[in-house]
Amino acid sequence: SQVPRTCRLDAAGRTTEFFRLVVQAFTLYYESTTTMATNTNSSSSSQHARATLLDEILSPSKGPRRVLYGRDEEQEQMKTIYRRVLQNNQGADGNDNHDKNGTTTSTTPRTNELILVSGPSGVGKTALAQSLQRQVEDDGGFFVTGKFSQMQRPEPHAAFCEALTQFVHLIVRQRPHQPQDGPQRLRTAMIQEGLDLETDGKILIGIAPALEEIIASGHGNDTSGDDTTTTTTTKAALSSGPPPPPGPLGQHDTTSSFAADSSAAALRFKYVCRSFVRAALRTFRPVVCLLEDLHWADETSLDLIQFLAEDSEQPPGALYIGTFRNDEQSLARKNLVAMVQNLNATKVNRTEMEVCVLTVDDVGRLLESVLLIDNVEATELATIIHNRTNGNIFFVWEVLKSLVQRKLLHFDIDHYECNHEEVGKELNQVGGVQELVVSKIFEFPKHSIESLKIAACLGATLDPAILQYFTSEPVLEFLQDMSSRGFFRYDDTRKCWSFSHDVVQEATYQRLIPVNERIGYHYRIGRKLWRVLDEEKLNDFIFLVVSQLVTAVGCLKDEEEKVAIAYLCLSAGVKGVSLSNFRTALFFFENGIALLGPKAWKTQYRLCLALHNSAAEVATSIGLFEKNLDHVNQVISNAETFNDSLRAYAAKVHALGSRGDFHDALQQGVAVLQKLDVDISTNPSKMKITMNWLRTRWRLRRRSVESLMRLPEMNDPQKLGAMQMLNLIFLYAVHIKPDLSPLIGLKMLEMTLDHGISAVSCVGFAIYGYALGTVERDPDNAYRYGQLAFALYEKYGAKAFLPRLSAIFYEGVHSWKRPAHEMFAPLQSAHRVGMETGDIEFATMCAAVPTWTKYEYQSLVHLHKELASLRERMVMYRQVSFDLVTRPIHQSVLNMIGLSADKAEPTILRGEAYSEEVERKIENDNMTMVRDWSVCHEMILCCLFGEYQRAYDRAPLCRNLLHRHSGPMGASIAIFYSGFAYVAYARQQKEERGKRIWFAARRARKLSRELKRWSVHGPHNFLGKHLLLEAELAALSGHKSAHPKYIAAIGALREGRLLAQLALAHERLAFYLHNQAMDPDGAKAYFLEALALFRKWGASAKVERFAVTLRRLGLEESAIQASSGAI
């Protein structure tokens, strides 16, 4: 039939003039094409051009130009969410507060936006998501895309690599709305987020090489460095003959991997990615990240998605969109469902959309608009097409293109012709969409079909250089030809080729390569690349090559080839570890083990040792502790020497510690040490502890720092292994056997003096200095050996040890001599290094150590936010014990700012951070130190809120803290408030004048003298506390010296910046003046100043209760309100 053209409104009320112009424009292109075809006597080119015209209008690669049908509701919902992101972004730009340090603090908590779009394959999920692209770009934002694939090679975080690469290219391209100095601004933001452009830059460049253009250009040199992840075994594997003996690999099998913490490195990778995303959003926004086909995403990538989506400190302006098939039942799909269920609803605003197939009316409207036909014609043709395609939009497109190519559909500006009966017959012969795609493929030349099959085996994204190895035809011409036929597309932003749709790749792979031939296909592809690539390129494509080869694990017969591929598996796994993709690494390690078989321990001992050790360590990193034990047992059973099993034992100890079994980890570590002839016990007697102290101090009595630095090098592998094991178990001892931790340092010192110095010796000297400070209370020597530890660290350039040294030194040594606030910056740097090097445990300690000092120094509101963020990271990094340690102080802060469980009883340590369940866990785990600190914090709260009887009852329990190796700042707080509780109780019960009053005063004087001794070395930190206790004792005795002592205490506390005690000192002086009736005006002034200081400290609950007291004492309401911030 033929339909005259008219300009009219479609069913939705929109004019089709736009589509007339589009068709007219493409008709001009079509006429020029057909003219060329006529000149060359090629009628097929004419039909191909007509199909190309239709493809230009309908192609999924045209994203923003395309009009969607039947998706109005979903599009509006998606735009609403995007507008919400924009509003949050504008709020961040204009309505955030800035503290005095310039730090931006949001006025309202924000949640990140995540849209999950589900539906069958080909239904238009990606098209729906891409409908936002034009609007995002018009707003000056970025729309980036990454895609997961069923047949993708196990390349770490492939989809993130694609999205990140696209983002980088968009930055470099300098778009109109984009700042001209974009790359420099991004570098600056990365540094501000704590990223090191060299070390962290290597991680980012590892997953997105395009970033090197930005990172290296501002860094002054090439941050990528030489890639040393491929060992000499790769070169061995390049030959078809047997590989040479493993050089450096064999040396890596025993003790050299003790310091490697793959679990921490995995967390470090997420930390770096999160910091980069934050930096990017501070520089460029809005950013919409579309991740396609999440149902094929690996567990590591899903974990990273959740990690980024739940980042509560992420700047606003990001929208995450994920698409997935809801009819796919793969393991990855189950992992996706689990991830979605585990999303924190308070941090992620999740929206789920299910995209259904088009209705007949939807298909009819599409045909009306594109073919410019009336409703009757469109409905008739739509019914025929819908009956075959079931409304699957991709199938509809393919059918329309096929009808044009087969001359069953004719259309241009002037007329439309279509024999519906013939179309119905033709479509009845078509199976599914894959059959339709395959029917088109069979029209291609054989060499093109073969290239398509190889491309399908290589993955969704193609490298033309790799494909060129398998064909004599020019690959770019092939790809351009296939692109014109709708099989491939070129992404100019990401500079890469890919299949136009999953269906095309799946049809090629599943329909053209029989199941029984697929292993052979993959194997031949891998073997060809293995032989033609030089070592540098083999390292670049090692994941692709090895993943192709290992498909034939069960089919290979040649033993030499198995060994060579196993070496390749080891190299691929090592590179996977370097890129922090541990599941991929484990995949390669275990395939290497499967290739060798159990008998290979006799013929390929070193290779088996390396593979099993590596697999054990990586299994720990992803929480597969049973796998860890399997591989560890294999090593222990087959190791030729005990030295060869040390790495496996270390992996086992670390696995036990990682899952919180500190007792078992400590017992196992001590058992290994005893086999290494190191005499150490988990339950040392007091006599043994004393003898160890005396022996060590005697041996060091005439040793200068210079002579210790000149000790010979430790070369004995067993002794080095023992030092590493002592280093490993130290933290477990701190948690459950604090009396044992100093002995570990003494033993490391003893081994250093007997067998020579090593990089690990710096940890031993640091522990010794810590013990001298916390046990012996010898600040001078503690500081001396702490400085020696850092000198050794500098000598060996042992960056990995910096977090350990810093946590130990600044907790137990630094504050004896220097103002405590000076620890903040170096601990922050050490924390960053720990995250970079993967020492998460001590990086966490570096973040936790300053909290005691900050409790006295800074606003409790800020400290609450800091502790909440810190504890969140602790849980995220599986640092459960550290989380428990920080809960008492966090709950104390919450009580002070008015967020206790019972606001009427702020002296009871109970609430969000410290519940009954937490208390039971602390008791069950026998964490006595945490229990003692919880008692101490209740005592502090009782002191501040005037519950002196309860404070007095708890004070004796806090004495344990003075004998459990607490650092000087924490111990000084316990000493001060214990003394304060004793004095307050004595003052309250003064009229009784009994023995208990005398005892309380005596205990307070003793504690004050202790602080006085400490003040000689660190007046900034301890003098003010000592003077305040002395003033309280003088006031208790009725001495006139009380007033000047209060004044002196206030001066010392102000100089030491101790805000909490400064507020308390003003309060106590005010009460002293009031009770003595010496200076009413002065008492009033100090009362109001105390109220203002408590307010500055952020202690809202204290301010509220103190204001009630002042009203009762008769102070003016206006003055109280002014000091408390009420007006």
Report strand order across the widest sheet.
4-5-6-3-7
Q: Describe the biggest sheet?
A: 5 strands, parallel
Principal-axis shape: globular
Structural class: mainly alpha
Report how far apart the termini are.
82 Å
Q: What do you see in this structure?
A:
This protein has 1127 residues and is mainly α. 65% of the residues lie in helices and 5% in strands. A hairpin with a 4-residue loop joins β11 and β12. α30 runs parallel beside α32. The longest helix has 23 residues.
Main attributes?
mainly alpha, 1127 residues, globular, three-stranded antiparallel sheet, disordered N terminus, five-stranded parallel sheet, 57 helices
Structure summarized in a few sentences:
This protein is 65% helix and 5% strand. The chain has 1127 residues and is mainly alpha-helical. Helix 13 (299-309) links the parallel strand 5 and strand 6 (318-324).
Topology:
Blueprint: H1 17-39, H2 43-58, H3 72-94, E1 97-98, E2 104-105, E3 112-118, H4 125-130, H5 133-138, E4 142-147, H6 158-173, H7 182-192, H8 199-207, H9 212-215, H10 232-238, H11 248-251, H12 262-283, E5 287-292, H13 299-309, E6 318-324, H14 331-342, E7 348-354, H15 360-371, H16 375-389, H17 393-405, E8 409-411, E9 416-418, H18 420-428, H19 433-441, H20 446-458, E10 461-462, H21 464-468, H22 475-484, E11 488-491, E12 496-499, H23 502-512, H24 515-532, H25 535-540, H26 542-549, H27 559-578, H28 582-596, H29 600-603, H30 605-621, H31 625-638, H32 642-658, H33 662-675, H34 686-700, H35 705-709, H36 717-736, H37 741-755, H38 761-774, H39 779-796, H40 802-812, H41 824-837, H42 840-848, H43 851-857, H44 860-876, H45 880-896, H46 916-924, H47 928-944, H48 948-954, H49 959-962, H50 968-988, H51 995-1017, H52 1019-1037, H53 1042-1056, H54 1059-1076, H55 1080-1097, H56 1100-1112, H57 1117-1124
Parallel strand pairs: 3-6, 3-7, 4-5, 5-6
Antiparallel strand pairs: 1-2, 8-9, 10-12, 11-12
Helix pairs in contact: 1-2, 2-17, 7-12, 10-27, 12-30, 13-14, 15-16, 16-18, 17-19, 19-23, 20-23, 24-26, 26-27, 27-28, 27-30, 28-30, 30-31, 30-32, 31-32, 32-33, 32-36, 33-36, 34-37, 36-37, 37-38, 38-39, 38-40, 39-40, 40-41, 40-42, 41-42, 44-45, 45-47, 47-48, 47-50, 48-50, 50-51, 50-52, 51-52, 52-53, ...
